[in-house]
Amino acid sequence: MAETACRVLLVLGTSAGGVGRHVRMLAEGLAAAGHRVVVAGPASTDRAFGFSGVARFAEVPISDRPRPASDLRAVARLRALAAGADVVHAHGLRAGALAALAPGRRAGLVVTLHNALTASGAVGAVYGVLERVVARRADRVLVVSPDLGERMAALGARHVAPAVVPAPPLPPPGRTPAEVRAELGAGERPILLTVARLAQQKGLETLLDAARGPFEGEAPLFVVAGEGPLREPLQARIDAEGLPVRLLGDRADVADLLGAAASLVLASRWEGQPLIVQEALRAGRPVVATAVGGVPGMVGEAGLLVPPGDAGALRDAVRRLLAEPGLAARLAAAAPRRPLPGPEDAVRAVLDAYEDARR
Fold first, then answer.
1. How is 44-65 classified by DSSP, letter by letter?
2. Where do the Glycosyltransferase subfamily 4-like N-terminal domain residues begin and end (predicted)?
3. Is residue 1 very low, low, confident or very high in pLDDT (cuts 50, 70, 90)?
4. Residues 26, 350: contact at Cβ < 8 Å?
5. Where are the domains of the chain?
């Protein structure tokens, strides 16, 4: 497949972060290697990630929740687009299931699952059905963590392999740590950085519980970069309890924030291969994170891992990192040595998957 030009249809649903960045990286890398690439997804994704700058973009209404009328239109549109493709590569459960349901598909189907199923109730039941559709109809399923792979194999997936999801390089910092600290009003306090969508999956209530302390001396400043549906309730709690936490909203200066931070802190209930963890490791920052999904394999000896939902363990890990400079220095030194994939590795891996899917 790598030696012959391939017609690739990349499909994604609504995305504001890692999935969109990953698809953009693949589109750019595949096009640069001489393959014909079409990206299909909601118009908002093209505005956010500039797909039309590196490939042809086709608008397809793939929403983040089941919507029967919209989903039927999406399936019809994907059927038409897939007719001109050698391989359809869908990203995420919703996009993968809709691509699998498009009748008349002759192209090979590869689905990358970037997240675990966390919904419950009626929505969770629907997503459970979509998981089985993907497991049974996809020619190849790529997963971002071992637990996802085990689940898909149990549901009947024929071929499951690890996904390669590298973080695109961050631009160099544009400001000094002192300038960032001044903007944030940190004073002499250590800065603990979280970069996450403000949503249930990210465990931010646990982060706020941990931020209550107690800490030795003055509490560190927890800063959270990101937006999402939980912003108002999180801010209300921060204000009501006087927590040492600042919600910064979406930020384009993550490299600056990492440069000023003592550590990256993630309290997520589940993660795959979070891009921010890779970015922190490349920046030489220690990581305090929950031991979920693909995080332990990424962090290795460059961080401290705690159980998800355990605010006490998260607080104690932060306290230990701040109280033991030698430990912090060892973790920071180990961070840039972690073996992390690059864009070339990701493109090579998907081309191998495409070749296998067409056999």
1. HHHHHH-GGGTSEEEE----SS
2. 17-166
3. very low
4. yes
5. 7-166+341-357, 177-337
Question: Helices 121-137 and 146-154: crossing angle, nearest 10°?
Answer: 80
| Bond into 214 cis (ω within 30) | yes
**How far is CA 318 from each of CA 80, 286, 306, rounded to the nearest angstrom?**
52, 11, 10
* 212 Cβ contact list (under 8 Å, min separation 6): 241, 243, 315
Joined tokens for residue 350: 């998907």
Band (pLDDT 50/70/90 cuts) for residue 216 is confident
Q: Which CATH architecture has domain 7-166+341-357?
A: 3-Layer(aba) Sandwich (3.40)
pLDDT in tens, 246-285: 999 999 999 999 999 999 999 999 998 899 999 999 999 9
How confident is the model over 186-201, as a mean pLDDT? 96
What is residue 170's DSSP assignment? P
3-class state of residue 269 by DSSP: coil
Alpha-carbon distance of 270 to 92, in angstroms, equals 15
Q: What is the mean pLDDT of residues 205-222?
A: 95
Judge: domain 177-337, CATH 1.10.10.10: no
How confident is residue 125, by pLDDT bands cut at 50, 70 and 90? confident
pLDDT reported for residue 63: 86
Q: What CA–CA distance (Å, rounded) separates 131 from 93?
A: 7
Burial of 121 (0-12, 13-18, 19+ CB in 10 A): exposed
| Three state DSSP letters for 255-267 | HHHHHHCCEEEEC
Q: Please tell me the pTM assigned to this model.
A: 0.84
Rounded to an integer, what distance in angstroms lies between the CA atom of residue 345 and that of residue 326?
34
Residue 105 has pLDDT above 80, yes or no: no
**What is the rounded distance in angstroms from the CA atom of residue 44 to the CA atom of residue 30?**
22
**Would you state the pLDDT for residue 204?**
98
Length of the chain: 359
pLDDT of residue 4: 80
Integer Cα distance of 63 and 81 in angstroms: 18
